[in-house]
Write a structure and sequence with these properties.
By secondary structure, the chain is of the alpha+beta class. Helix content is 15%, strand content 43%. Mean pLDDT is 81; it is low at 1-13.
Length: 84
């Protein structure tokens, strides 16, 4: 569930594994903005790299990387589909 500004509200839940819910406090999550991303994968993991891209200078600064298992990536994709 999202609160103001699209941020998860206090006690927001993520459910990447069916039947298992984890509760997190939004205040404990650092925020970074990205306007460009790249996805790489191997058989064992998905790697999502996020960047802040300055199109006028044709440059991008790496903001952060998220590495997850294929099972977690599938749950992430399902969660994104529900946001449409």
């Amino acid at each position: 569930e999202s609160g103001a500004g699209g941020k998860p509200g206090s006690g927001a839940s993520a459910n990447a594994t069916p039947g298992r819910t984890t509760t997190v406090r939004a205040a404990d999550i650092p925020e970074r903005f990205a306007n460009f991303f790249a996805i790489h994968h191997t058989q064992e993991e998905f790697i999502l790299d996020f960047f802040m891209r300055d199109e006028s200078a044709n440059k991008a600064r790496h903001c952060f990387r998220v590495i997850m298992s294929p099972k977690t990536a599938k749950g992430f994709l399902e969660a994104l589909k529900k946001c449409q």
